[in-house]
Amino acid sequence: MPPKGKKKPVDFNNLGTAGNDIVQVPHPIISNVVSTFSLGMKLDLKKIAEEQQFVEFNPANFAAATLRVKEPRTTALAFQSGNMVCTGAATEHHSRLAARKYVRILQKIGLRVSFNNFKIQNIVAAAATGFTIKLHDIAADFGPYTSYEAELFPGLIFRSIEPKLVFLIFRSGKVVITGAKHKSEITSTYESLYRNILVKYKDIDGSTSSSSEYRNQTRQNKMVKIV
Fold it and tell me: Which is it for the CA torsion 95, 97, 100, 104, positive or negative?
């Protein structure tokens, strides 16, 4: 167990394989790629929205205008500065393709915009381990490296250093990964997490997968130990 102190992420590169090379790791599936790019000029969002039905803009609610394309199915936020955010793509390639489509759409309505500074900002993925996980035990053994407040949020938060990712681990065995800039970061780091931590905290007792019931069971167990 690491010494108590200031919270810091675990260095997954130093976990090793712990003899789990034969373990089959379920592949994470990307659910959202967020990218940013620049149009190279400022936009009059109010005027564009008034002239183009496909542009949604309500400055009272949000400072950006909203655009959408069906293929790749994404949503883009256009800011007055000319910066844009593209969300919803399933791959890095689709995110870039969608970004270029938004630029072409704006060019077709007469705006002299260009495609600049494209960058992947965040990739979100999810995986299912196929077994329930002892979240309380992980929090107890890796306390300085995790955050687990079951009364506030049902998932345990686990962080890695390089690459800098955040893992949301749920009692049911579902894991959400966020913060990646490349798919390869998710694949390698999740594999290390799965082989060296998750499989070691598999709940072989087969108790409930419900987060609320697990929280109540943990609380009851604590009370019994106190008594």
Answer: negative
Domain coordinates in residue numbering, the chain = 12-26+129-203+215-226, 30-123
Yes or no: say if 82 and 40 are a contact pair by the CB < 8 Å rule: yes
Q: Identify which of 136, 140, 138 has the alpha carbon closest to the alpha carbon of residue 151.
A: 136
Inter-residue contact 132 to 210 (CB < 8 Å)? no
pLDDT at 17 over 60: no
30-123, what's its fold? TATA-Binding Protein (3.30.310)
The superfamily (CATH) of domain 12-26+129-203+215-226 is TATA-Binding Protein (3.30.310.10)
According to the model, what pLDDT value does residue 163 have? 86
For residues 168 and 178, the answer to whether their CB atoms sit within 8 Å is yes
Phi, psi dihedrals of residue 51, rounded to the nearest 5°:
-95, -20
Place of tokens 């990646």: 180
pLDDT digit string, tens, across residues 128-161: 999 999 999 999 998 888 999 988 999 999 998 8
Please state the separation of Cα 138 from the chain's center in Å.
20
Confidence of residue 8 (pLDDT cuts 50, 70, 90): low
